[in-house]
């Protein structure tokens, strides 16, 4: 039985632990600390926690000011507000100035569900990964989120991390190696490679089982770092398996699929199919129903796998 | 920098010199923003020569007072001020806006003495708040000054930041408004009226003063008053003239972002040599 846990829960717990170890860590919230789980930190370190109200631009700017004298601010809110609404502050105050600010965007992806399109952040990879100086992380499960949160506190520079609202299947182990910028192979295969991130990795593993029954052996790669993208793993996958499927809970344009496509066409062109939200906004609904309707399920990855293998 | 006896006449002479250097810098670059640079000269001199504790030979001195130039297009004014203070060689002003120069078109941290790269308006006050909040968390005593433009405060982020500073009672923060009344395409009052500015900031929890932004006595006494204010951030509205000191530039929107040509520069410098206008 696969255990489930939300990445935001793991983030909140880890942030408190980091706060105990490192007094330089301060946390800013856009009145969503109950949702982002930054409230765990607030409870233990009220003097290092600030709810700046519903003002994401100001939150990112204030974080920059805090970082200027060596504090390590974690700015926490919904992904959609921090990356989309406050974009120019992310671009200029944070990235252009190379500030040591950690941007934590929770409730990303279509699985935020009933809140509907306005809350469903499907653009964060695209808009963050074009910015110089930033690292973009999308953990696959709670265990990886813990490692990513610890890692980003030790990195000097801007880091954006995407978190989900829903419990994600736990598919990694404490002992698994986590290195920023280095993808992890979850399953070996010779006929194609599925490169997935976040929740879509577990869907990809299910898809690989189905494909295997059909005699198609799929490698599955968990690419937890969207930027810098692990070019080496992508090139190796293209050379060794000859076909690629990407899977992400994100718009089809500009996200992981595009990042992988860029690496492929520049290095070792291979047929590519992208499983992602197909250039449309989401809507209200239950997470599972939305994943099905917007073709983000294991069956969709299976279809893409069959298709891409034929193109080899 | 030690606090010196303030000699107003020498400050006025410095202002005339800075204005000449600002115009020469922009003219040499062939582009830039003279209007909003000329309007904030006395503000910068008051800060850098009369109020701020800073060490040009040690720009990262931990307890220095911080200055954030939120109106990043007024880079010529800040660069001229920093060069004259000794942060970098004045000769370098000639490289302003040129390929490979540290002196980027908008205020940039590559320049010694600059705390924050700016240029996209409305972002500086939030950062100043963060520095002020950080100083309080770390229990370190220094002041944070932030210069805003009156066109700039049309940006919504400024008001988010205004609310934050008021709520958190950031009394180590002094924001100064270079209220020169003119933005790129005309008078601020016609494009989007901001008055009553003082009431707005007071309502957001700030201690507000309004002074003649070209009068050193008034500026310095307002900055002195800031030192005594407890429990509130301070907002100084400095009424200024865009393009101050050059008759054909004063109050003219077209000099917001345009360099003078050779003839115009000569005329402007001649006016500033006379010196009587200030």
Defining key terms:
heterodimer, A: 312 residues, alpha/beta, Rossmann fold, 2 domains, 5-stranded mixed β-sheet, 13 helices, 42% helix, B: 278 residues, 5-stranded parallel β-sheet, two-stranded antiparallel ribbon, globular
Can you describe this structure?
The complex is a heterodimer of chains A (312) and B (278). Chain A is α/β, with parallel strands linked by helices and 312 residues long. Chain A folds into 2 domains: 4-169, Rossmann fold (3-Layer(aba) Sandwich); 184-310, Rossmann fold, CATH 3.40.50.920. Helices cover 42% and strands 21% of the residues of chain A. Chain A has helices at 7-21, 33-36, 39-44, 56-68, 79-85, 87-96, 124-129, 142-154, 200-213, 231-241, 256-267, 287-293, 298-310, and strands at 4-6, 25-29, 49-51, 72-78, 102-106, 135-137, 159-162, 167-169, 184-187, 192-196, 218-222, 225-227, 244-251, 272-277. Chain A has a 7-stranded mixed sheet, with helices on both faces. The model of chain A has no long low-confidence stretch (mean pLDDT 98). In chain B, 51% of the residues are buried. Chain B has one domain (8-274): Thiamin diphosphate (ThDP)-binding fold, Pyr/PP domains (Rossmann fold). In chain B, helix 5 (124-138) packs parallel to helix 6. Chain B is 41% helix and 12% strand. Chain B is α/β, with parallel strands linked by helices. Chain B has helices at 8-29, 34-38, 41-51, 75-85, 124-138, 156-167, 188-191, 197-203, 216-228, 262-274; strands spanning 66-69, 144-149, 173-179, 182-183, 186-187, 207-212, 234-239. The interface between A and B is medium-sized, with 28 and 33 residues.
């Amino acid at each position: 039985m696969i255990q489930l846990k939300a990445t935001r829960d793991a983030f909140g717990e880890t942030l408190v632990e980091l706060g105990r170890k490192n007094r330089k860590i301060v946390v800013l919230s856009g009145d969503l600390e109950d949702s982002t789980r930054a409230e765990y930190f607030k409870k233990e370190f009220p003097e290092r926690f600030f709810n700046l109200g519903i003002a994401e631009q100001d939150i990112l700017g204030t974080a920059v000011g805090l970082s200027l004298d060596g504090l390590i601010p974690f700015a926490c809110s919904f992904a959609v507000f921090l990356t989309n609404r406050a974009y120019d502050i992310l671009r200029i105050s944070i990235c252009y100035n190379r500030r040591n600010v950690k941007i934590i965007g929770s409730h990303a992806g279509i699985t935020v569900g009933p809140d509907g399109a306005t809350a469903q952040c499907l653009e964060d990879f695209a808009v963050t990964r074009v910015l110089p100086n930033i690292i973009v992380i999308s953990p696959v499960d709670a265990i990886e989120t813990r490692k990513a949160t610890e890692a980003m506190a030790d990195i000097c520079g801007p880091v954006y991390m995407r978190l989900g609202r829903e419990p994600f299947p736990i598919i990694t182990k404490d002992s698994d190696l986590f290195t920023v910028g280095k993808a992890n192979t979850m399953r070996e295969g010779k006929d194609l490679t599925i490169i997935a991130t976040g929740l879509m990795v577990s869907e990809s593993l299910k898809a690989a089982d189905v494909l295997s029954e059909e005699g198609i052996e799929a490698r599955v790669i968990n690419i937890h770092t969207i930027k810098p993208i692990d070019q080496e793993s992508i090139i190796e996958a293209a050379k060794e398996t000859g076909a690629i499927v990407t899977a992400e809970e994100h718009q089809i344009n500009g996200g992981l699929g595009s990042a992988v496509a860029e690496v492929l066409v520049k290095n070792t062109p291979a047929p590519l199919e992208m499983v992602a939200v197909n250039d449309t906004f989401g809507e209200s609904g239950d997470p599972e129903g939305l994943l099905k309707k917007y073709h983000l399920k294991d069956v969709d990855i299976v279809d893409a796998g069959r298709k891409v293998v034929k193109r080899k | 920098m030690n606090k010196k006896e303030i000699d107003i006449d020498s400050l006025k002479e410095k202002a005339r010199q800075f204005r000449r250097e600002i115009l020469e810098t922009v003219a040499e670059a062939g582009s830039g923003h003279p209007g909003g640079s000329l309007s904030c000269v006395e503000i910068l001199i008051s800060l850098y020569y009369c109020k701020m504790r800073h060490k040009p030979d040690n720009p990262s001195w931990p307890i220095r007072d911080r200055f954030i130039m939120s109106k990043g297009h007024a880079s010529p004014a800040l660069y001229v001020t920093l060069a004259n203070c000794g942060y970098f060689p004045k000769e370098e002003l000639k490289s302003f806006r040129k390929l490979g120069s540290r002196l980027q078109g908008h205020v940039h941290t590559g320049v010694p003495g600059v705390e924050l790269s700016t240029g996209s308006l409305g972002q500086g006050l939030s950062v100043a708040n963060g520095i002020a909040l950080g100083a309080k968390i770390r229990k370190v005593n220094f002041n944070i000054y932030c210069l805003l433009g009156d066109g700039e405060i049309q940006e919504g982020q400024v008001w988010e930041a205004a609310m934050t500073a008021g709520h958190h009672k950031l009394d180590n923060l002094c924001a100064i408004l270079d209220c020169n009344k003119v933005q790129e395409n005309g008078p601020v009052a016609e494009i989007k009226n901001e008055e009553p500015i003082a009431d707005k900031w007071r309502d957001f929890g700030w201690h507000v003063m309004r002074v003649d932004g070209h009068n050193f006595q008034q500026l310095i006494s307002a900055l002195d008053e800031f030192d005594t204010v407890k429990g509130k951030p301070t907002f100084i509205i400095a009424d200024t003239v865009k393009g101050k000191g050059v008759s054909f530039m004063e109050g003219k929107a077209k000099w917001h972002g345009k360099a003078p040509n050779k003839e115009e520069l000569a005329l402007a410098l001649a006016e500033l040599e006379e010196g009587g206008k200030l």
